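Q: I have 436 residues here and want to know how they pack in 3D. Can you give me a structure?
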Amino acid sequence: MAILFLVILVDMIGFGIIIPFLTYMVDNLAGPGQPIGRWVAGLMAAYAAAMFLFSPIWGALSDRIGRRPVLMMGLFGNSIAFIVFGLSSSLWMALGARLFAGMVNANLSVTRAYIGDISKPHEVARRQGMLGVAFGVGFSLGPALGGFLSAPAEWGWTDAFVGTIFETYPYLLPCLASSILSLIGFMFATIKLDESITKAKLGGIELRSASIILKSNLSNIILMFKRPKLSPLLWSMTFYWVGFTMMHVTFILFTMMPISNGGFGFSESQNGTIFAWIGFCGIIVQGGLIGPLSDKFGSSRLMSAGFLLAGFGLASIPYVPPEYSMIGLLFVCLFIALGNGLVTPSNMTLLTYVSGQNERGIVMGVSESLRSISSLLGVLIGGWVWDFSVNRDDLFDFHTAFRLCGIFALLGWAFFRFSNAWGYGDDLLSDPVGAQ
């Protein structure tokens, strides 16, 4: 669990580290008149699209050759991808780096399958919660590091980076830091991580080519959508992920806008502070609260409450008064962090209960594929809606994108709350002896 924690921590630092500067990087690389919102969406969508296509391959491959080698490949690939991204001299080069990062990164789904391999049913919620802590720590440290390490040649307290490669590539330093962390995770996985699947079970899994896995991906998704208890878990999270990832595009586009235009005029470091706060709150929820809350209320109730809390927070972002911008956003983002901290581990716990060990890698791979395609749709919708609405002064102004975020979260809640998946697995959580 310690090594798995480190793997997800490194992944989330890498994911979060680009958030504070991505929009500013696009603004620097874009030519005159280029739609910033759509390019930000495009870079995020490239990562999500590649993950959608390749997560099932890595998930099924982990069922065949083991979780450990797949995790190691993901960590090493991440290290390369971040160096290329930091050295990007054009938007197309940056786009290629994000595509490659999405292709090689299946660490999340494989790690969740690993936990399913080594855990008894009543242990799953707490152990998924431990991954949530890694999410929270990584999502807290990542944006903070990304904001602090951006544009070092412009730091006022030192001129050590002036005239160096870090002045030419102002966002190389945070990418280099993330690359080094991935290499550290790779070394720990190489030395310390055991395989979770026995050789006998690996030998019994059918050998399939990458092309067959790709072709069966959509059919697997369709098949799982037909399973009565699995389908609502997938549908609800699909809607939620669309709304949640829309926020990743529009949040900094909104906060970096001048106050005169309705934004807050935030810098990279200020945006990093906000996302670090979200991560910190996630640590509290998923590290200290998710286990006891799951025992008392069950994963279904926590997941339902999480949808509503996150949806309220997402929809409230643009209504924070400019004179209270920082404290107001910290308050609103508390709802987002609490909601997401309840939704994610609860959903993963329920997915674990409805899947067997011999299909767990595929189920988690499909789940991550749906997350990726939902993220793809979310960032594309968010970028398009932002460019459409940012200069309007009517009902469909820049508030529109955030309202849609809340609506999608509400749809996720409705699809789950009124389904036959509601309440599933609560008997396992409350009866650890019987679960064993």
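Q: Anything worth noting?
A: Residues 357-389 form the longest helix (33 residues). The CA atoms of residues 245 and 430 lie 33 Å apart.
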